[in-house]
Design a protein that fits this description.
- The chain has 139 residues and is α/β, with parallel strands linked by helices.
- It has a single domain, classed as 2-Layer Sandwich (Transcription Regulator spoIIAA), CATH 3.30.750.24.
- It is 31% helix and 20% strand.
- It has 4 helices and 5 strands, in the order E-H-E-H-E-H-E-H-E.
- Strands 4-3-2-1-5 form a 5-stranded parallel β-sheet.
- Strand 1, helix 1 and strand 2 form a beta-alpha-beta unit.
Length: 139
């Protein structure tokens, strides 16, 4: 009997990571679209669903003026990820958003990636499979 050993960590798809990039000012009107984009990516990005338990990264480094609408979006994105059997991890979290997540108690629920200076590792570059979801500015 032969067993094939997978490369890398279980539940981590290093070749096709799921990355949702959120930029601009987030309003409640765009939250359903962001959730739908993440749900599509988690169910079948590129024709193959990611392994159960895989991490979906959400890059929020480009958001403008984080507020409770963004916190609501993060909470809803976390629910979408969990319903699909995955976890949501925020990358490049602005200090204002970090403070709001702490205030409402979501910092312990949503994974927060360490900043490059905190872990001693350089930030990874954008990789294939990225989903870019620009958020339009105020009308």
């Amino acid at each position: 009997m032969t067993f094939a050993r997978r490369r890398g960590l279980p539940g981590v798809d290093a070749e096709n990571p799921i990355v949702l990039t959120v930029t601009g000012r987030v309003s409640r009107a765009v939250v359903p679209d962001l959730c739908a984009r993440l749900e599509r990516a988690l169910t079948a990005p590129g024709g193959a669903a990611p392994a159960p338990g895989a991490v979906a990264d959400c890059d929020v480094g480009g958001v403008v003026r984080p507020d409770l609408a963004l916190v609501d979006a993060v909470a809803r994105l976390a629910v979408v990820a969990r319903r699909s059997g995955h976890t949501l991890r925020l990358r490049r979290v602005p200090p204002e958003l970090r403070a709001l997540l702490d205030l409402v108690g979501l910092a312990d629920v949503v994974g927060l990636a360490e900043e490059p200076g905190e872990s001693g590792e350089p930030e990874r570059s954008e990789e294939p499979g990225e989903i870019t979801a620009p958020v339009p500015g105020p009308p």
